[in-house]
């Protein structure tokens, strides 16, 4: 179980950090006045709105070492094919999770950006701040509540991830991509140890409740401020 917890921790950290960075960068770009930005926003949300079962099966076929389209493209470009599901299982499901969730993070950051008053940027311009300084000293601090929200929601989602290891890697190779909830499932339905599986589920419940309390307090403090 320590191994499953460690794999889940790596998966959660990688997913949340990548979603934060990519979501913020994409949000800044799509918050600019540009032609077709609403179309791009809609396209980004398609993976998030797609059933996780469809996402898992789609990517399992795409990454298949023999018949997958990704390896075919690599071979066509003169590059060696990769056994994604066996050699890089955790990185693979992390990348798929980021691909699915980054649109949601982008949407939240866009909402946060639109809530920043233009007066802050005007004051920074008067003081001679460069675009980077305005982003660092105005945008990032004003987006702190959104960043906290995205981080906690993303962490809770990552801790509960079951479908990707089940559908894409089957927890393998061996138990290399054995995430926590997938291990709980195996403990209950493969090993028939329902008592231990229940204890593990309660432990996860406590962690998620603690994160939810942090989120509620952060939201309350922002509302009071």
Automatic annotation (TrEMBL):
InterPro entries: ABC_transporter_permease, MetI-like, MetI-like_sf. Gene3D superfamilies: MetI-like (1.10.3720.10). The keyword Transport applies. Keywords: Cell membrane, Membrane, Transmembrane, Transmembrane helix, Transport. Its main location: membrane. SUPFAM superfamilies: MetI-like. GO terms for cellular component: plasma membrane. One of its GO terms (biological process) is transmembrane transport. It is found in: Cell membrane. It holds the Pfam family BPD_transp_1. It is a multi-pass membrane protein. Residues 5-215 form the ABC transmembrane type-1 domain. CDD domains: TM_PBP2. The chain crosses the membrane at residues 12-30, 42-62, 194-214. Belongs to the binding-protein-dependent transport system permease family. This is ABC transmembrane type-1 domain-containing protein. It comes from Phytohabitans rumicis.
């Amino acid at each position: 179980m320590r191994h499953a917890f460690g794999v889940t921790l790596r998966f959660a950290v990688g997913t949340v950090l990548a979603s934060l960075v990519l979501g913020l960068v994409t949000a800044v770009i799509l918050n600019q006045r540009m032609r077709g930005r609403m179309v791009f926003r809609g396209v980004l949300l398609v993976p998030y709105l797609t059933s996780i079962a469809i996402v898992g099966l789609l990517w399992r076929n795409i990454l298949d070492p023999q018949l997958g389209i990704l390896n075919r493209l690599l071979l066509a470009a003169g590059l060696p094919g990769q056994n994604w599901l066996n050699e890089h299982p955790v990185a693979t499901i992390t990348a798929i999770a980021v691909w699915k969730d980054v649109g949601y993070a982008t949407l939240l950051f866009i909402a946060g950006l639109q809530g920043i008053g233009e007066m802050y940027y005007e004051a920074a311009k008067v003081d001679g701040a460069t675009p980077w300084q305005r982003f660092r000293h105005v945008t990032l601090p004003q987006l702190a509540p959104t960043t906290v929200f995205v981080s906690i929601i993303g962490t809770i989602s990552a801790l509960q991830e079951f479908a990707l290891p089940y559908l894409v890697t089957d927890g393998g190779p061996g138990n290399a991509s054995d995430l926590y909830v997938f291990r709980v499932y195996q403990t209950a339905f493969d090993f028939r140890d329902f008592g231990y599986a229940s204890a593990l589920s309660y432990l996860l419940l406590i962690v998620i409740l603690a994160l939810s309390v942090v989120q509620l307090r952060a939201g309350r403090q922002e509302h009071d401020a």
